[in-house]
Amino acid sequence: MTVAAVQIVRIAETPPVGFETLREEAAAEGYGFIDRLAGELAGGIYAGDADLPVMLAAFREGGLVAIGGLTPDPYDSAPDLARIRHVYVRPAMRREGVGRWLTTALIQQGLAVAARLSLRAADARSAA
Fold first, then answer.
1. Which listed residue, 61, 70, 114, 117, has the most CB atoms within 10 A of its CB?
2. Long-range contacts from 104-111, C-beta under 8 angstroms, 24+ separation
3. Which phi and psi angles does 24 have, rounded to 5°?
4. For strand 6-11 and strand 54-60, is the pairing parallel, antiparallel, or unpaired?
């Protein structure tokens, strides 16, 4: 995997091309958070150019391979805290470095606006 092989793009108003396929794959694995993300995108919470919330998508060879967001932490209103959320990497792209590139971009964006970041990855399949 080379840096040039993965493109990270900010998503603002509409789901990127390939989102429905990614959503179907997530549902087949039992992940419901992509459905919640779809609702948030439809509700416009990622629209605009504010520092938070932000949604990033990773593309490889033109196809959507991963997605993840950064929002104020919904469980802790501390102003210096942001939460990494809704991170999903398509199964065929796991162990290829895509998740690392995406989360690095989310961390960089997050630390530019908040002193602390949180992430909940309760599923054992989320292991790096």
1. 70
2. 105/8, 105/56, 106/56, 106/68, 106/69, 106/70, 109/51, 109/54, 109/56, 109/70, 110/70, 110/82, 110/84
3. -65, -40
4. antiparallel
pTM of the model: 0.86
Q: Whole-number mean pLDDT of the chain?
A: 87
Q: What is the pLDDT of residues 19-41, one digit of tens each?
A: 999 999 999 999 988 888 888 88
What the block records as the tokens of 72 is 């104020």
The Cα 53–Cα 43 span in angstroms is 13
Q: In what order do the strands lie in the sheet with 81-89?
A: 6-11, 54-60, 63-72, 81-89, 116-119
Can you tell me the distance from the alpha carbon of 32 to that of 39, in angstroms, rounded to the nearest whole number? Answer: 11
What percentage of the chain carries pLDDT values higher than 70?
91
Instruction: Walk me through the domains of the chain, giving residue ranges and CATH numbers.
Output: 3-122 (3.40.630.30)
Of 61, 74, 83, 64, nearest to 15 by C-alpha is: 64
